[in-house]
Specification:
By secondary structure, the protein is α+β, with helices and mostly antiparallel strands. The chain has 2 domains: 1-213, no CATH class; 220-364, Nucleotidyltransferase, domain 5 (2-Layer Sandwich), CATH 3.30.420. It is 45% helix and 24% strand. It is built from 10 helices and 15 strands. It is globular and about 65 Å long. The model has no long low-confidence stretch (mean pLDDT 81).
Length: 365
């Protein structure tokens, strides 16, 4: 049976809510230490999980050996001293005891075990490589790590403690639903799930996961909307009586190609830029144009996917069919210009996410 809830992830900047610069630096250093231990623990956990899954391969020189990845106290064929989930947790908790909260290690262990089980068949067939975690990875924590979440009128921010470190949110000009979701969490209307902390360039970002009820709209599964994705018209959608084109080739590409041209000029000019701090300063303009292009494409695709779902809701279409997508992927791979500028996968991802939130079934033809 399909779940009636949906999980949403948002990105919220955090500020350490301590009075002195020294205290704030100490708290930030502690977060970076947790990030480092989490990165090392993640690689250890995945390595141990892979060895456990393929332990039978180490018995190829002997015959008649029986094994089972279970607690030897509960199963006579078991070769483990404890439950399988607990083995990897004990490995990392013993190694990093006192250096990182156990809540983080436990959340990390549960997340990686779930992910490993999901992809285990592909690992076994050699179709997927093991995950390799980077030093700047986001580290997870469960709801037990957060306390005193409330809105502070004086600071005009949501404040809470994460493992006794005080934080306050910085929402800026928030045009999304972050503030509303946090208010609903405080009221108990929305559940807060296992979330992450991401550290980047000295800034702290909270990636909270909210579990909300799906929108209850008066949609009819028998009413079908057919959509076609292409570069000429980003989206063409029609029902039995209505047809709508969303965006045009000129509208989408004009600004994107202009940004690409500006970035190309910046790359040429970077040769003659004053270095000062090495390569980072010389290519600063290039990086800015790269971010500008990424933000522009993300915004346009968000607008296109939003208009598509609004069209379906307006006409009560409970089923959305995306037509001839395999053929168009093949064409895109043959033409470098189309592959570079279409952003097909990002558009598909946003459509699926918004359709799921609205309760619309997606069928890819």
């Amino acid at each position: 049976m399909e779940k009636s809830t949906l999980k949403l992830t948002r990105k919220i900047q955090l500020l350490v809510d301590l009075p002195t610069k020294e205290e704030r630096k100490e708290a930030l250093d502690k977060l970076y230490q947790w990030q480092n231990r989490c990165f090392r623990a993640a690689n250890l956990i995945v390595s141990h999980l892979y060895v456990q899954e393929n332990i039978k391969e180490f018995f190829y020189l002997s015959e008649g050996i029986k094994y089972k990845l279970a607690d030897e106290k509960k199963d006579e064929l078991g070769i483990l001293q404890r439950s399988r989930i607990n083995t990897t947790y004990r490995v990392v908790s013993n190694r990093f005891k006192g250096e990182i909260p156990t809540n983080i290690l436990s959340s990390l262990n549960n997340t990686l075990i779930t992910s490993f089980k999901k992809n285990s068949q592909e690992y076994w067939k050699g179709e997927r490589s093991l995950k390799n975690f980077r030093r700047d990875m986001a580290f997870p924590f469960s709801l037990e790590g957060i306390s005193r979440l409330s809105y502070n009128d004086e600071k005009r921010a949501f404040c809470f403690r994460l493992f006794q470190i005080p934080f306050k949110t910085y929402l800026g000009k928030d045009y999304s639903d972050k503030r509303v979701l946090l208010e609903r969490v405080i009221k108990g209307e929305v559940k807060l799930c296992t979330s992450h902390i991401k550290l980047k360039d000295g800034k702290i970002f909270w990636l909270p996961v909210f579990e909300i009820e799906k929108e209850k709209l008066s949609l009819k599964p028998e009413v079908i909307a057919e959509a076609s994705l292409s570069l000429e018209y980003p989206i063409v959608v029609k029902t039995a009586n209505t047809r709508l084109t969303i965006g045009t080739r000129e509208e989408f590409l004009y600004r994107r190609l202009a940004i690409q041209a500006a970035r190309k000029r910046a790359q040429i000019g970077a040769t003659y830029s004053r270095s000062g701090k090495g390569v980072k300063r010389k290519v600063k303009a290039v990086d800015n144009f790269r971010k500008t292009e990424s933000n522009y494409v993300s915004h346009r695709i968000h607008v296109y996917s939003r208009k598509l779902i609004d069209f379906c809701i307006k006409h009560q279409a409970g089923t959305l069919i995306l037509l001839n997508q395999e053929d168009k992927i093949g064409i895109a791979k043959e033409e470098k210009f189309v592959l570079r500028n279409w952003s097909y996968y990002e558009l598909m991802t946003k459509i699926k996410y918004k359709a799921k939130k609205a309760g619309i079934e997606i069928i890819i033809d």
